[in-house]
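Incident review: delayed structure delivery

Summary: a single-chain prediction request sat in the queue longer than the usual turnaround. Root cause was a stuck worker, restarted by the on-call engineer. No data loss occurred. The affected request and its eventual output are reproduced below so the record is complete for anyone auditing the incident later.

Affected input:
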Amino acid sequence: MPGTSSGGWRALVESSNARAEAQRLAIAAARAADAKGGRDTVILEVADVLIVADEFVVTSAPNDRQVKAIVEEVERQVADAGLAKPLRVEGLDDRHWVLLDYGDVVVHVFLDETREYYELERLWADVPRLAWAEPVATR
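Output delivered after worker restart:
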């Protein structure tokens, strides 16, 4: 672009790299949740409408033990992939809605009834969803 300084280009590249890293972390978290039986796992791309995060991962479980198991698996797989550790974790005491805050990515692990009550997907219905499932191999 004419008139774009090298600093402007650098900021654009850094922003693009940060967004790609956030998507990578969100996909790893979604796959980890799915591996532990997370229900209806989605990634909402909220970067264009929120300042606080680029991606929301939303999943749920039928009981509080499974909520805890999903949270632990997300933390383990994301850390094992060398991506990050959560900046903070909230909601582990009652396990109705556990929030793992990774900065640019926020993972929401709900108890099924709590997810139905808050309806985050309806609230963010206008944002794009990021495909995260690995393609099924065909023979």
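Verification: The chain has a mean pLDDT of 89.
Action items: add queue-age alerting; document worker restart procedure.
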